[in-house]
Amino acid sequence: MHSFDMQIAGEPRDGEESSVENPATGETVGTVSIGTRTDAIDAVEAAADAQKKWAESSPNRRERALLTVAERIEANQDELSELLVAETGKCLATAKGEVLETAQQFRFYAGIADKIRGDTVPTPTNRFNYTKRVPYGVTAHIIPWNYPLLLGSRGIAAALVTGNTVIAKPPSQAPLSTMWYGKFLVEEFPAGVVNIVPGSGSEIGATLSDHPSVDAITFTGSTRVGQQVLEAAAANITPVDLELGGKAPAIVLPDTDIENAARGVAQGIFSNAGQNCVATSRALVHEDVKKEFTDLVVEKAERITLGSGFDSATDMGPVISAQAQDDILGYVETAQEEGATLRTGGDIPDNPNLQDGHFVEPTVFDDVTPTMQIACEEIFGPVLSILSVESITEAVEIANNSPYALAASIWTDGLHATRIADLLDHGLVTINTFPVSMPQSPWGGNKESGLGREGGYEGVEAFTTVDSVVIEHDEMEDTF
Q1: Nearest to 170 by CA among 187, 190, 194
Q2: Which residues of 36-51 are buried (b: 16+ CB within 10 A; e: fewer)?
Q3: E strands within 288-406?
Q4: What's the pLDDT tens digit per position in 275-284?
Q5: CB-based contact 357:21 (threshold 8 Å)
Q6: What DSSP string describes 191-243?
Q7: What is the DSSP letter of 412?
Q8: How far is CA 271 from CA 89, 173, 278, in A?
């Protein structure tokens, strides 16, 4: 069993111990020391003390540190993947992919270290104007539990390479893997550059959000909590980058390979037990192919094997907690009351070997209408709603008629795909694949799905501001 302390100013710090359970079995898999408001304040002060010197470090120094972290993650990928499975319940193959992409993110941003540039601005001949990108300073990173390594490291790597210091708050439900690789960060960077304080959002997250010495905040999580972070940060005019909820539509048109579309939508909603902000939870299917598509998705859902993520036969693991399980089943009940047709799933599996875990069957609803609760709200579980549409125009209208606008997918073999993409008000649109992330690509949502972008070069922009310098070549006129 793993046990981790906080990391503040380059030193471990103990605190009240909190247990972490495996959601597939209910067994305790590790413990962490929980921080208090005082610990969070100490972490901010340590980060502030270290920031100026780190900002003055050479690009080569930053590059080497990020590359070393990537190498250490890769060298420990098996152990780190297993720890991720133990605390989240996700399948081992999914965990391994997350670990490797985390290493790739550090490699990507390491390569950017000597490519962070300003610009020159055309001016009258008596003046010279140039700009420079400079770090915000102290950055707070409030990390989600569904992909703690991938989503946490995206912001941490970008912040560090641009000269910022970091305070990370790992997710309460799944802090262990962040704490594991966080030790690599603490060891490879100067004291105080990286600080890690586990704890509740109401205490650690709130302290970081309203602290006047925190210069930028990144948060991934629910829209409701994101609003609270914004409100707290507003008192100090602190920039905030948010990736929030989603209700990703998948538009399926008659001119696509229906088998391929069914395969992609099923992967998009049932991978990681639907606990993805970009899960393809709404399938907007043209009426001409809806029956064929629905039958194929139901068939695939019924072939999914539930179980421990450590079992190679498992296709889908549990949801994160008993509360999440109850919430998802509540949506299932409401959907049936509102008239949706349950095609498969919708319950706790009857396998006695799974009774100690938080499992929900892969669930497919047909005959869903746009105003039903399951078509409007983020469920964050393995529940697919299938809606019938008569045209592209209707599909786009339904896809956009949502407060969420994080990601969407289009399934078509037609050249009109890019024109449809232009009509969709979503931060990410994919064509003939479910929404995917890559280190080199920007990531973020529109409307209530978030503010700003991380990933790619946009990640550099998320953690820097632009200063302008103007040089006057002529003497000033004597006007007084």
Answers
A1: 194
A2: beebbbbbbbbbbebb
A3: 341-344, 363-366, 383-389, 404-405
A4: 999 999 999 9
A5: no
A6: TTTEEE----IIIIIHHHHH-TT--EEEEES-HHHHHHHHHHHHTTT--EEEE
A7: -
A8: 12, 19, 11
Which residue is listed with tokens 């030790």?
A: 183
State the CATH architecture for 249-431.
3-Layer(aba) Sandwich (3.40)
Report which residue type is found at 244: L
Residue with tokens 């004291």: 191
Q: Model's pTM, two decimal places?
A: 0.96
Interatomic CA distance for residues 4 and 439, integer angstroms: 28
Q: Which CATH architecture has domain 2-244+449-468?
A: 3-Layer(aba) Sandwich (3.40)
Contact 178, 168 (CB under 8 A): yes
Confidence class of residue 477 from pLDDT cuts 50, 70 and 90?
confident
Quote the CA–CA distance of 20 and 236 in Å, as a whole number. 34
Please work out, in degrees rounded to the nearest 5, the angle formed at the alpha carbon of residue 408 by the alpha carbons of 270 and 366.
55
Walk across the sheet containing 16-21 and list its strands. Answer: 2-4, 28-34, 16-21
Give catalytic residue positions: 243, 277
| Terminal C-alpha separation, the chain | 76
For 384-425, how does the pLDDT look when each residue is reduced to its tens digit (9 = 90+)?
A: 999 999 999 999 999 999 999 999 999 999 999 999 999 999
CATH 3.40.605.10 in the chain, residue ranges: 2-244+449-468
What are the CB-based long-range contacts (under 8 Å, 24+) for 92-95? 92/309, 92/310, 92/312, 94/271, 94/272, 94/309, 95/309
Q: Are 388 and 368 within 8 A, CB to CB?
A: no
